Amino acid sequence: MSGALLITGGTVIDPAAGVHERRDLLIRDGLVAAVAPPGDLDAGGAEELDAAGCWIVPGLIDMHVHLREPGYEYKETIASGARAAAAGGFTAVACMANTNPVNDCAAVTQSILERARALNLVRVYPIGAVSVGLRGQQLAEIGELREAGVVALSDDGQPVMDGSLMRRALEYASMFGLPVIAHAEDRNLAGGGVMNEGAVSLRLGLAGAPAAAESAMVARDLALAEQTGGRLHVAHVSTAGAVELIRAAKARGINVTAEAAPHHFTLTEAAVADYNTNAKMNPPLRTETDVAAVREGIRDATLEVIATDHAPHHRDEKECEFDAALNGIIGLETALPLALRLLGEAQVTIDTLVRALSVNPARILAVAGGSLAVGQPADVTVIDPKRRWRVETDKLLSKSRNTPFGGWDMVGQAVATIVGGRTVFRAAANERRKKSA
Ligand SMILES: [Zn+2]
């Protein structure tokens, strides 16, 4: 069992408890034991962590990752994904069902949970499939999945094209208290689009997917959420149109939450310009107008979650012609600094970011975390907001290398990640000195 840990000298930012001030934090027996003004707590033999100049926040929770195990261990494993998560400041991740076999039954859910438990690093929450085999024809055994421990349902990677199936998914899922996470894309409208449809796709001669492929599906799913009263969560929102629809739906009281991915609030379709396959994802990178709308959606909490859509792929699946390359990029180790850029560039407050990266995912998935109140599990991320570092692709802990952010200079990084009172990641001290010098 873990010993006691006293984190001193930092600023505790805990929006759930309304705390944003200099505080020391004492962890004992895996729980938050005390939060008190600087110097008030007696270490009493506890290990000390000097967090001077740092933010101490409830552990970050990424509710949208692809861990690739079982079936695609050559891209990522639960172990490599969990190590990347810890290094990125995440104390918990929720993993999508598009593994092989698909997580559409209790046996797969249980094996993921068993592996994560044996690993004992970050918390791993499986997401079950909406439909058997992600084929969009027959509902998965939702009760069985719930019993086995899934925290949500999603066919992510594939839209649920059949509206009546989506309707029943929302109805059944709400009976079991689960949200349905929508990959909102009208596949017919998207056609064979491999990037955003617009001036850039025209110039490059690549097939484009129109923004309406997303907003049309969001509109359908919102109508179904209204009809059923089910809990809809819209994944990776990328278009101004979808942001506006979700904002209006919330104003009308529809039970919907939504997320944005760091690449969608950082990059535009211009990143595809030289046929860069590390800028190929689904939904695709959009226009400056869309990026501005996604940022505004985060600022006003229309998009109340930031999630990475961490999607590892092998080199061979990306180093090929653009049309043939697989969709997606890794994101666990770059999400936090990219989110922190919004502080300066988009008038987003740090409290809003902590809500988006911890409080809200915990609430939506109904899992531990999201608060540093006394008695809560000690899932804590210590962030040095001034730490400068360069993304060196070869040094990332994910098994895959497909990031468009290689070589980027970042500001801000997790320097300690603590799960249930146990430190699962610690930035090297000498490296800290060197880089902050
Ligand atoms: Zn995804």
Keywords:
four-stranded mixed beta sheet, binds zinc ion, alpha/beta, disordered C terminus, 437 residues
Kindly summarize this structure in a few lines.
It contains 14 helices and 19 strands. The protein is α/β, with parallel strands linked by helices and 437 residues long.
What do these coordinates show?
With 437 residues, this protein is α/β, with parallel strands linked by helices. It contains 14 helices and 19 strands. The chain has helices at 78-87, 106-119, 142-148, 163-175, 187-190, 199-204, 212-228, 240-251, 262-266, 288-299, 315-318, 335-345, 350-365, 429-436; strands at residues 5-8, 11-14, 19-22, 24-28, 31-36, 47-50, 55-58, 60-65, 90-95, 123-126, 180-182, 195-196, 208-209, 232-234, 256-260, 305-306, 380-390, 409-419, 422-426. The protein has a six-stranded mixed beta sheet, with helices on both faces. Strands 5-4-1-6 form a four-stranded mixed beta sheet, with no helix packed on it. Strand 18 (409-419) and strand 19 (422-426) form a beta hairpin. Helix 7 packs parallel to helix 8. The longest helix is centred in the middle third of the chain and has 17 residues, at 212-228. It is globular, with a radius of gyration of 21 Å.
